[in-house]
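Take one protein record:
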Amino acid sequence: MSLFEPSPANQVEGAASRAAASPLADRMRPETIDEFVGQLHILGPGKALRRQIERDELGSMILWGPPGSGKTTLATIVARKTRSDFVRFSAVLSGIKEIKEVMAAAEKSRHYGRRTVLFIDEIHRFNKAQQDAFLPYVERGDIVLIGATTENPSFEVNAALLSRAKVYMLSALSTDEVQTLLRRALGDAKRGLGGRQIEISDDLLRQIAVFSNGDARSAFNTLEAAVTAAPRDADGRAVITEALVEDAIQRKVLLYDKAGEEHYNLISALHKSVRNSDASATLYWLGRMLEAGEDPLYVARRLIRMASEDIGMADPNALSVTVAAMQAVHFLGMPEGNLALAEAAVYLALSPKSNALYVGYGEVVRDAQQTMAEPVPFHLRNAVTGLMANLGYGKGYQYAHDADEKLTDMQCLPDNLKDHQYYRPTDEGLEKKWKETMRAIEDWKKKYATSK
């Protein structure tokens, strides 16, 4: 059989007949939607994609998601469910010649009333000309195309082909979801590791899930490597130790739990080290989190928050640095992106500190919740209709650009809060300049008031 020969659903082999040498990840591949773990946003009860699969009424689609999120597994489930000819096609191993042969076979099958479901793994590896070869067959309905990709289809898939397919975005699995899959493998005697007397603590199992970073295949491979390396005692038991897990993942297992207390302890230590301007401690706690498998985008989000909460207007560039670090992680991935996060974290630690924005916004929230929400003053409203103008909208508005000093004495807060100052800059960093600017503005307003 060639790599692209059609294989009807009734020819798809069950997991029980797979070779014993197959990797654990392949043996444990879910065979039904009910076995599938994760992606509830597209496969949960009542979701459109689930209904399409269950009814065998598929339309062309692109499955976009990170490695190990279930793209190929979904295609395998479709292969077992569909009554159509199912063809697996690898963009890595196939070219135009193979595409034309498959398309010719699909066109012939359609004349006999049979539909062809074509699954293309790593569709982004096909160039635009190769992708164009599928278009007429998708348009005529000769094939239902299912493409899988780890790359953004907006950039990697032909626009004409993309317009004829529904894009479903898959997410990296959560730590709990990966752990569920690992437990299933340990308890499944038919396909997995059940019945082999394997002992592993919940903490180590969770560490494997954490290090997989949402990739189920990676987690299965790590577990299988640890089990294979584990010695058997006199009773035939294999006890998975921390050392075996460390060897399997090629790094030290650090005490960490993305969803537990240690997660919050470490981010607290990082935040408080930044606030205390301790660059070395900042770098250490950042490294502890990243090396323990923390989601780098979670760290980036927290650094962005620190830039606004603890530095603010003392160095507005801190926000730009942290956002740039987040973008670098998106672009590079890990571990290449770790230095961008380290640069941002140390920048924050060594920046001048001010919580004036944090305190001021907190006072705004308090007043918004506890004081009467007075209407916006008429002079600050836009008169977008004649009726609104007649009612006085915009009357008395002073356009600052018309004034020589670019300032007016116009009141911008509601009457019940007109004298409140929410932002009170410190003398740190650039805030000293903002403080001087605000003082100059107030002096001008007092002088203008006495001159009227």
